[in-house]
Amino acid sequence: MDPSETQELVEIPPGIEKRHPVNSETQRRLNLVGVITEPFQWIQMLCKELNTSFVVGVMLVYGLSQGFSGSFFKVVSDYYWKDVQMVQPSAVQLYIGLYYIPWVMKPIWGILTDVFPVKGYRRRPYFIIAGVLGVVSALIVAIHGKLPIFLALVCLIGITAGVAIADVTIDACIARNSIEIPSLASDMQSLCGFCTSVGALIGYSTSGLFVHHLGPQGALGLLALPPALLVLLGFLIYELRTNQHSGKKKAAMEKVGGAIEGMYKTMKCSQVWKPSLYMYLSLALSISTNEGTFYWYTDPKAGPAFSQEFVGMIYAIGALASIAGVLIYHKILRNYQFRNLLFFVQLLYATSGMLDVIFILRWNLKLGIPDYFFVIMEECIARIVSRIRWMPMIVLSAKLCPLGIEGTFFALLMCIDSLGALSSKWSGGFILHVFHVTRTDFSNLWLVVLIRNVLRFSTLGLIFLIPRADQSDVLIPSALLSHGSSVNIEEERVELVFIKEKFDQT
């Protein structure tokens, strides 16, 4: 034996060989614990850097109000129009397009919350208004019998309006923090996406069950709970009260004028209007065929005749896949340039859409793939790609906002996105009508979906509108960044803290 080896053996403490397996097992356990605790450590970091109240606000608004309510509402309202109101899929597309009206009005909500305080408070009253509107709208649909279509549509729009109004405040906070701490812009969107996906997972997984046992109307009544919690949030949020002056109305109108002027100057900048145009067209050109597909899903003759519970489960698994999309973006893609990332994701988005054509033509059965397996695989791929495609566009939107009017301008950009979604719904409904896709006739549904995919491919020709910039770069001129509006920046800052923190300060 080599002398050096003998010396090495002598220096090793006795019994260490027996402890090696234990140390390896301990290390594996530590690694597993690290994987489990990493999200909590990440959230703790965000709370430290961004303020705990901001993080909690995101979880509540994006997770409960948007994630859970949005997903639950999607499934339940589809069954409401199909089984209670008995309308055609093309008409449902038109009605669903009207759901986006409150989202198109987000700049108005933004201006109201920014420059028209109620009793000196800029945020509390609007959370309460949003909650009351949502509660009343949901209860009217649930308690009354079969409402006239117009009144039913007004109530369903009221539910979405409550979500939209509550969303404005958090969006303003996200836009400001994205400007002040640009290195965490992608982390904030990851948090939003994760909360939305978790909420959607819960909403989708329970929606079919409640529709089956309570019916569509009874299930819609459950949507009164999230807005009720928004009302409670409005009372618990601590907000600095603004000073009241005699020239309040005049000052408010000056602020509105300053905000509009700031938005106009910012939107004229090519670094802003070009990506804004791309975001609108990328949504509008991807025409929606969801209602035609939903009716086909549940049809016992032409379609696979999925049950209510299984439809909810499809969307729930899709929401889980959406969480995977958030993780993929956060771990791998958040450091790529905007243009390169959006080009390849759009290409994948258009290509994956062809799975819908394969499914509708039932080629999956010829390949020996059961319907339930194929539709779950298709939903997972679609949701992952959609989430990865959406998140960099939201990061880009937040970075286009000038300080001082960041809440209102971010609402304007989200309004543009909502117009794109509305255009997608209405154009999809028009094409479903033109190709005579009805409650019972789905012979041309595959052709409508094929047209949708061709339009998705055409969006690749617009990628030049996206800047060649990293996701951590400042994208708008410093003059706009610093002087987006005459609104006093510090006056507009609102601290959202727990009621406990309020008591600690008194």
From TrEMBL:
Keyword vocabulary terms for this entry: Membrane, Transmembrane, Transmembrane helix, Transport
One Pfam family it belongs to: BT1
Cellular component annotations (GO), alphabetically ordered: membrane
Compartment(s) of residence: Membrane
rRNA-binding recorded as keyword: no
Keyword match Electron transport: no
Transmembrane segments: 54-73, 93-113, 125-143, 149-170, 191-212, 218-240, 277-298, 310-329, 341-363
Source species, domain of life: Eukaryota
Membrane association type: Multi-pass membrane protein
Entries under InterPro entries matching the protein: BT1, MFS_trans_sf
Main location (coarse class): membrane
Record family assignment: Belongs to the major facilitator superfamily. Folate-biopterin transporter (TC 2.A.71) family.
Stated name of the protein: Folate-biopterin transporter 6
Species name: Kingdonia uniflora
